[in-house]
């Protein structure tokens, strides 16, 4: 079967009523979580993770994919309507989106945003469909040293965008990998760092860590924020797609944004926030009206919108072909696959192409149906804002602890989750990036397994540098570390802007009615 | 320069340095002969030890940097550090963490159902929701919905509590039609 035939089969599977309904439910959850300030879509994905136990791997991926795609766009709704970004990746959408909404009406600004996002997302889904299989074929030639080098690259690349503080990013990463090594080692079965506890012999479950750090940590941070701005949205915000004439006028910025997002999405650890900031920064430089950006220039809204959704499909390429997540959302999708004992990597393309192409198809469909779901959510945004966030936080916290309990039906996991929630809160308070820790807990055991089996098989540590593909990946790893150390680069500059703006987002994010 | 922030970072760095060094030195796999268990210099303790040493080295660098900031007055802290402290209300943070920890401890003692009702009520009240009707309705209906979803539909073995609380939870489940 060739690519198109597999894709057609994938479409048929994705359109099965139950699968389709789950994807739409995921889109609704994602757009709403993205749109409501104080609840990120990554939070919603982490919270939804335990529920995927009840689903097949495909349905789980469609559900989480829906949240991911919808959530990346959802933040723009609040950016444009009330000038408060729902997520950090929607900060650039405030700068020109809100002034456009004030000047030309929210309908026009939302239409630019959804059209650019859908185009970026669709291109990215196509890129995923047609670029991932050839790359997976190439990756089939990889052995354990190459997989170790690729996983190491995934681990260190998160440092390039860890909010401008390399030292704290490194500590967070090492801590995550060390936590991932708790329990039996993969080769000898020796218990490490268990302190005699039977519970720790099985290791610390990364789902529990993710829920604690992302969901509980985020809620505690938002709950303790000092500023509680009031938001009221009186009018119903309708939106539609741009007319062909308007679309043609914005073709340049949408194309540039899509291209930037597609490239940045593939970089492990980067994600939608970096994509949006870099796209905005570059568009400002290239656009002939760059000096007027921030006053309501349509290109200044279209470029970051196209870019952030273009990262979604692209971030899945390293995930599905090498098992390395390209973003926080992709990391949770990796966790979902691992929960179902599905190991992403080149072999998955050979063993289960139906699953792979159904995932491709679901990403394409999610980007199309995101338009309709977003229209509905935007219309009822005012109603959403009337819900007291304290009530939402209460449910998120209870669901978080239930999710942790569901992992092993063990009360001890509730305490581990609580501990990581508190750790996550303090990490946020003291500017320790949390993403490296979570990535370390997920990828650390994989990296150790590849490392140990490589050394056991080849008998020497030099094997990582003597095999060509492994050597190239190790070189890229060192290049990433060097890149992170040197402050002048577009992504690092954007990361600094992201860092500064995130403080504003954090402050504004907690919304009280 | 915000010296308090710098001292806070010094305490964090010192804690990380000491903890990771002690763990790397003594607690990875006590009693294991690392040399005998290793192959080519790489054994079961190598990976976690390298990571803990990595934490210790980074913490040491952070410690030196922060000490330099305190004692060499010409180096200034980024403004963001001081701003961060102003963004948060520590009292609310302590309240939030305390309620959560008490909720976690209460689950195995009084059972999920009663602990959740109480958690919802206390969280909403301390979070600023002052309408008794809202607090009562959200606490009761929210807990019932969660019980139906997780204990009823998903058949999750939620903790029922100890002694009399176990009996009380079972009665509640019977009333709700879950059992």
Q: Can you give me a brief rundown of this structure?
A:
Chain A is mostly helical and 513 residues long. Chain A has helices at 3-14, 17-35, 41-48, 57-82, 91-104, 106-139, 144-157, 166-180, 198-201, 206-223, 244-249, 251-266, 271-286, 298-322, 328-339, 346-351, 353-379, 381-385, 389-408, 411-429, 435-458, 463-466, 468-485, 490-509; strands at 183-184, 191-192.
What does this structure look like?
The complex is a heterodimer of chains A (513) and B (179). With 513 residues, chain A is mainly alpha-helical. Helices cover 74% and strands 1% of the residues of chain A. Chain A is built from 24 helices and two strands. Chain A has helices at residues 3-14, 17-35, 41-48, 57-82, 91-104, 106-139, 144-157, 166-180, 198-201, 206-223, 244-249, 251-266, 271-286, 298-322, 328-339, 346-351, 353-379, 381-385, 389-408, 411-429, 435-458, 463-466, 468-485, 490-509, and strands at 183-184, 191-192. The radius of gyration of chain A is 22 Å and the shape is globular. Chain B is mainly alpha-helical and 179 residues long. In chain B, helix 6 packs antiparallel against helix 7 (132-153).
Topology:
The complex is a heterodimer of chains A (513) and B (179).
Chain A: H1 3-14, H2 17-35, H3 41-48, H4 57-82, H5 91-104, H6 106-139, H7 144-157, H8 166-180, E1 183-184, E2 191-192, H9 198-201, H10 206-223, H11 244-249, H12 251-266, H13 271-286, H14 298-322, H15 328-339, H16 346-351, H17 353-379, H18 381-385, H19 389-408, H20 411-429, H21 435-458, H22 463-466, H23 468-485, H24 490-509
Antiparallel strand pairs in A: 1-2
Chain B: H1 3-27, H2 34-37, H3 46-71, H4 79-87, H5 90-110, H6 112-126, H7 132-153, H8 164-176
Helix pairs in contact in B: 1-3, 5-6, 6-7
In total, how many beta strands of chain B? 0
Radius of gyration of chain A: 22 Å
- What does the main sheet of chain B amount to? none
Strand order of the largest sheet of chain A: 1-2
User: Helical percent range of chain B?
Assistant: over 70%
Helix proportion of chain A:
over 70%
SS summary, helix count of chain B: 8
Distance between the termini of chain A: 55 Å
Biggest interchain interface, per-side counts:
A-B, 66 and 66 residues
Unreliable stretches of chain A, pLDDT < 50, 5 or more residues? 499-513
Overall spatial form of chain A: globular
Backbone CA Rg of chain B? 25 Å
User: What is the strand content of chain A?
Assistant: under 5%
- Output the helix-strand order of chain A: HHHHHHHHEEHHHHHHHHHHHHHHHH
Number of strands of chain A: 2
User: What structural class do you assign from the helix and strand content of chain A?
Assistant: mainly alpha
Structural class of chain B: mainly alpha
> N- to C-terminal separation of chain B?
63 Å
Mean pLDDT of chain A: 84
Net shape of chain B: flat
């Amino acid at each position: 079967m060739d690519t198109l035939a597999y894709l057609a089969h994938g479409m048929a599977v994705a359109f099965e009523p139950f699968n389709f309904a789950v994807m739409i439910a995921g889109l609704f959850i994602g757009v709403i979580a993205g749109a409501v300030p104080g609840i990120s879509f990554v939070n919603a994905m982490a919270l939804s993770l335990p529920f995927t136990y009840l689903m097949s791997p495909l349905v789980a991926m469609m559900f989480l994919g829906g949240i991911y795609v919808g959530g990346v766009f959802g933040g723009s709704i609040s950016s444009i309507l009330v000038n408060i970004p729902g997520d950090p990746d929607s900060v650039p959408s405030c700068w020109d989106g809100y002034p456009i909404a004030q000047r030309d009406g929210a309908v026009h600004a939302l239409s630019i945003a959804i059209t650019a996002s859908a185009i970026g997302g669709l291109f990215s889904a196509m890129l995923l469909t047609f670029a991932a299989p050839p790359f997976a074929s190439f990756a089939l030639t990889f052995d354990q040293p190459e997989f170790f080098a690729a996983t190491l690259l995934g681990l260190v690349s998160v440092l390039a965008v860890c909010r401008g503080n390399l030292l704290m990013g490194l500590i967070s990463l090492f801590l995550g990998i060390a936590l991932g090594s708790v329990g039996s080692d993969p080769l000898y079965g020796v218990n490490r760092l268990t302190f005699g506890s039977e519970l720790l012999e099985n290791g610390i479950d990364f789902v529990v860590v993710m829920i604690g750090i992302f969901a509980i940590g985020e809620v505690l941070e938002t709950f303790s924020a000092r500023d509680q701005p009031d938001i009221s949205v009186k009018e119903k915000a309708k939106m539609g797609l741009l007319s062909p004439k308007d679309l043609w006028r914005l073709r340049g910025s949408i194309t540039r944004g899509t291209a930037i997002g597609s490239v940045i999405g593939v970089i492990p650890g980067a994600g939608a926030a970096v994509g949006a900031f870099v796209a905005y920064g570059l568009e400002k430089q290239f656009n002939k009206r760059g000096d007027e950006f921030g006053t309501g220039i349509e290109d200044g809204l279209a470029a970051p919108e196209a870019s952030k959704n273009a990262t979604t499909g692209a971030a899945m390429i390293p995930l599905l072909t090498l098992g390395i997540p390209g973003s926080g959302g992709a990391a949770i999708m990796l966790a979902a696959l691992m929960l179902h004992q599905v190991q992403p990597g080149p072999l998955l393309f050979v063993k289960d192409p139906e699953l792979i192409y159904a995932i491709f198809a679901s990403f394409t469909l999610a980007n199309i149906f995101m338009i309709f779901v977003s229209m509905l959510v935007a219309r009822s945004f005012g109603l959403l804002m009337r819900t007291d966030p304290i009530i939402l936080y209460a449910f998120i916290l209870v669901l978080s602890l239930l999710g942790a309990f569901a992992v092993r039906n063990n009360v001890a996991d509730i305490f581990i989750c609580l501990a990581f929630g508190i750790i996550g809160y303090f990490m946020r308070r003291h500017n320790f990036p949390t993403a490296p820790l979570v990535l370390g807990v997920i990828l650390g055991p994989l990296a150790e397994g590849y490392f140990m089996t490589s050394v056991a098989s080849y008998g020497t540590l030099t094997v990582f540098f003597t095999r060509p593909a492994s050597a190239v990946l190790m070189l890229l790893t060192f290049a990433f570390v060097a890149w992170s150390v040197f402050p002048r680069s577009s992504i690092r500059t954007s990361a600094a802007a992201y860092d500064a703006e995130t403080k504003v987002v954090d402050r504004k994010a907690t919304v009280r009615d | 320069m915000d010296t308090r922030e710098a001292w806070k970072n010094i305490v964090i760095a010192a804690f990380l340095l000491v903890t990771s060094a002690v763990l790397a030195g003594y607690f990875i796999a006590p009693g294991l002969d690392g040399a005998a268990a290793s192959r080519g210099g790489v054994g079961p303790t190598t990976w976690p030890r390298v990571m803990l040493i990595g934490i210790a080295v980074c913490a040491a660098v952070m410690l030196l940097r922060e000490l330099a900031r305190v004692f060499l007055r010409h180096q200034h802290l980024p403004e963001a550090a001081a701003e961060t402290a102003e963004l948060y209300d520590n009292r609310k943070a302590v309240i939030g963490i305390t309620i959560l920890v008490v909720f976690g401890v209460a689950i195995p003692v009084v059972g999920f159902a009663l602990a959740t009702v109480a958690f919802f009520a206390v969280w909403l009240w301390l979070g600023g929701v002052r309408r008794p009707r809202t607090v009562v309705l959200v606490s009761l209906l929210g807990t019932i919905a969660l019980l139906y979803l997780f204990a009823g539909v998903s058949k999750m073995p939620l903790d029922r509590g100890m002694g009399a609380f176990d009996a009380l939870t079972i009665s509640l489940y019977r009333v709700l039609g879950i059992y």
